[in-house]
Amino acid sequence: MRRNKYSLLRVISMIAFLLLWQAFSMLNKRVEIMNPNFMPGPYDIILTMLQYIREGTFFSSVGSSLQRVLKGFFIGSIIAMVLGYFMAKHPVIENILDPVFSAVGSIPTYAFMPLFIIWFGIGERTKIIMIVYSTALPLLTYIIQGIKSVDPILIRSAMSLGANELQVFFNVIIKSAMPHILTGMEVSLGLTFSALIVAEMMGADSGLGYIIVFSRNWFKVADMFMAMACIGILYSILKGILTLIKKRVLRWQMTSFDNAVE
Question: Among 245, 257, 205, 208, which residue's Cα sits nearest to residue 230?
């Protein structure tokens, strides 16, 4: 009941924000607090989106950005999983790599973009590498913490029952570390989208970031708002999917907690 109440409150809050934004846009067109062309309302943004759909460029742009995000996020997660496992299980590897990752991780991701372009060019590969880099480093810390928090008794029990190392990894370590991993994926997702937009702003010919840059050059502010709104919607959808997975995967923890309280 309380969950439904808060969900309704969130929906009302978003609707109220959009209505206030639209009211300010309409007022601005009458009294010109600022240039009306530079402050479109939600209605103008919807009209712009419909225009892109009619021209056949909307879904291709969204599809390009979504494909890059999913590909980079997946590869980055796999790399972080493998590195995190070996660093958590082997102190020598952790002490060798951790100082390097800590030093590199303190540098903003976007500072590496010029170097990535010099090294790999301005093609699709550079964009994916940028997203992979932005995903893997933040997620790595959560994976290491999660694997280190696994109860050694669970691992020994599984091995005593005949489980091999691969089975222990997937059925014991990953499942036990899943709360940390999913939390890290939620954090990394926001950085992944930030990297996507920066990558598409530099040397792209498709995608939502490209629309922002192209619209900026021609002062098409409604187009910029439309692209930003789509980015926010895509991020919200993917984060919502991660949240649903997290609730489903961790349901056993909540059930155990409730039973313990009772």
Answer: 208
**Strand, helix or coil at 35?**
coil
**Burial 40-78, CB ≥16 within 10 A → b, else e:** bbeebbeebbeebeeeeebeebbebbbebbeebbebbbe
Tokens of 174: 């990953």
**Residue 133 contacts residue 191 (beta carbons within 8 Å):** no
pLDDT band at 2 (very low <50, low <70, confident <90, very high): low
Residue with tokens 């091999």: 164
Distance, in Å, from the CA atom of 210 to the CA atom of 127, rounded to the nearest integer, reads 12
Tokens matching residue 19: 């209505």
* φ, ψ at 107 (rounded to 5°): -90, 130
DSSP letters, 163-179, are: --HHHHIIIIIHHHHHH
Q: What is the DSSP string of 229-242?
A: HHHHHHHHHHHHHH
DSSP 8-class letter at 262: -
Rounded to whole angstroms, the Cα distance separating 209 from 188 reads 19
More confident: 25 or 252: 25
Alpha-carbon separation of residue 225 from 31, 50, 82, 196, 215 (angstroms): 22, 13, 39, 17, 10
pTM of the model: 0.85
- The rounded distance, in Å, linking the Cα atoms of 215 and 223 is 6
C-alpha distances in angstroms, 261 versus 83, 98, 246, 255?
Answer: 37, 39, 22, 10
Q: Is residue 147 classed exposed, middle or buried when 0-12, 13-18 and 19+ CB atoms within 10 A define those classes? A: buried
At residue 252 the predicted structure's pLDDT band, cuts being 50, 70 and 90, is low
